[in-house]
Amino acid sequence: MFKNKQFMRYALVFLIIGVLYNFLYSGLQNDHLNILTPFLQSTYGWDDLKITNPVTIGAIVTIIVYLIIGAAFVKYGARKILVLSILALALGCVGISFAGTNYTLYAIGLFVVRVLVVPLQMGGFLLAANWFIKYRGRVLGIITAGSPLMSVVGIGLLTSLVNSYGLNTYIIIAAALLVVALVTAFGLRDTPEEVGLYPDGADKAPASEKEEEGEAVTLMNIVTDSRAWKLIISYGIFQFIIMCMMSYMAVRYISLSTPEDIPNLFVSKALFWLSIGAASGIPMSYVLGWIDDKLGSIKASLVLNILYFFAVVPLAIMPQGGNNALMAIWAFGVACMTGGMPTMHPCVTSYVYGRKKYMAANKWIMTIQAIPMAFALTFMGAFNQAGKLTTAYYILIGLLFVSFVTILSMKNIPDANAADRDYAKAEAK
Fold it and tell me: First and final CA of the chain: distance in angstroms?
């Protein structure tokens, strides 16, 4: 695709800013709660639910936001909506930074962050679907590496900054968001056709696009389509689990700390393994994208499902004081999970509905998936406060078996853009 120099310029800008989209999305959706929760508990004495209730409320509101933002993307394009939402996201961060002991200001700021982080990921996915078909998986594999990168360097960096500057750390985050907004406004375009180009840097329109013509995707189409429900169930489970896992990692390790773990197990041991294991897992985002491009989204989704077990099982069986082998496996699984899920979600949705109908279908699918995800923190918080956090992890393992069977049932679903995909051409030969 880099043979076309004009296409290459836009593609490179997108690859760089796409990594930042996912880095910031992962950090501001749930990863920062790993640092925020212990800090606010020790500084102000707030409990789990008081700290995370704004996120839970925000997550409930995002059920509608997915639909509204998706519709806005379809009508106005990704770039305009992205810039506006990133600027508002920065304001939410500023609100947290100035909150101090003012719980109302803290809650409003955190609520805004949780709600307006959604377009950051959705917009990046839409741009990837618009600009790439043949290389879609690998491109998404590169930009979604930003999520495990947050696990490798971001959590440690945030921990250090919060320990040094407290909530003023969010001013630094707001400044980074302003830079991202400027690059989005002036360095990107919604579609290659907007600047006289075609997806993947090709010299002609995609051959599969004529097959995509037809009626718009409506809610009725979604609720009566078994393909949609299989996507909703399988990737809804993935979304729910990733929210549960990423927001309660630190809490889980702190609960397993011994007197020898100073200040706690998460800081003394788990962060080290998170850096090592997650670094080894970052390439898995690209590997899953490569599998998608070469073997199809269903097979790649099955691989992702298996990798989720690497993240969840070790935390379920982790002993008091930790275990180095289990922590290494967990860290690798976390990177595969946080990088692989955002890689595969747009891939498999595009696989089923095609480039032109991707966002029209995705807005409904993600809206429905957001319903259980909105209660992920409440789910984990309730088990934690009951002293049964281990049980919560075993329930997550059970859900992974459900998603695996659901994805297996999708094996005969055809690829909407098969005519422009390498693996489909190879099968045809």
Answer: 23
